């Protein structure tokens, strides 16, 4: 995505959806509070940075030899997002409820490094380009990670303080599932347009 607004919207949308890293952040917010949990944010940025960098450096060159590969990867990412949305909707926030003790930075880093969202970022959201372009986009990405991660930590703290209130795991999960499904449809449209144009 070369348009900066579209890039940031896509990044924030995907970052905000519940997943393994966000679950750890919310759990830490619930158990340790916002200030103590903010130390986990650099670990998430480092995990995504390494994962996205490796994916784009290793698989990215293969896309030059196979022009339809980016569209196929976007379609695969859309399927993953649709599956995640359905799973989130059915779970109804169970993954965010009753998560034990706060996470360590090492656990957040490892979980983020293996997070399937990195595939979507690398192949469907980050635009192909020079190292300087990648660095610029990653700087914006890192700023979005800080904002969204802080939001997840704060949400965990809010859930812990107000059981049965407005912010509940089920509501967070359902809203995220709807947004994720919408993003999946947009990725399918983008992949289809690329195939038709080629």
TrEMBL record:
Pfam family, one: LysE
Membrane topology label: Multi-pass membrane protein
Statement: the UniProt record of this protein carries the keyword Iron: no
Name under which the protein is recorded: Threonine/homoserine/homoserine lactone efflux protein
Any GO BP: cysteine export across plasma membrane
UniProt organism field: Oharaeibacter diazotrophicus
Keyword Translocase: no
Transmembrane domains' residue ranges: 50-83, 138-160, 172-197
Annotated PANTHER family: ARGININE EXPORTER PROTEIN ARGO, ARGININE EXPORTER PROTEIN ARGO-RELATED
GO molecular function, one term: amino acid transmembrane transporter activity
Cellular-component GO terms for this entry: plasma membrane
Keyword vocabulary terms for this entry: Cell membrane, Membrane, Transmembrane, Transmembrane helix
Cell location: Cell membrane
Record InterPro entries: LeuE-type
């Amino acid at each position: 995505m070369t348009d900066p607004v579209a890039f940031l919207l896509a990044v924030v949308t995907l970052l905000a959806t519940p997943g393994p890293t966000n679950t750890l952040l919310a759990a830490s917010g619930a158990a340790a509070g916002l200030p103590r949990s903010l130390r986990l944010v650099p670990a998430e940025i480092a995990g995504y940075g390494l994962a996205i960098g490796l994916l784009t450096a290793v698989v990215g060159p293969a896309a030059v030899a196979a022009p339809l590969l980016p569209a196929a990867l976007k379609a695969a990412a859309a399927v993953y997002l649709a599956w995640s949305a359905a799973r989130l909707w059915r779970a109804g926030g169970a993954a965010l409820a009753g998560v034990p003790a706060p996470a360590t930075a090492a656990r957040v880093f490892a979980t983020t490094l293996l997070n399937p969202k990195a595939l979507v970022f690398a192949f469907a959201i980050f635009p192909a380009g020079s190292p300087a372009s990648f660095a610029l986009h990653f700087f914006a990405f890192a700023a979005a990670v800080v904002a969204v991660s802080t939001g997840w930590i704060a949400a965990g703290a809010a859930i812990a303080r107000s059981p049965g209130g407005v912010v509940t795991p089920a509501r967070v999960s359902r809203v995220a599932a709807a947004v994720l499904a919408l993003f999946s449809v947009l990725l399918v449209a983008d992949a289809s347009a690329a195939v038709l144009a080629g």
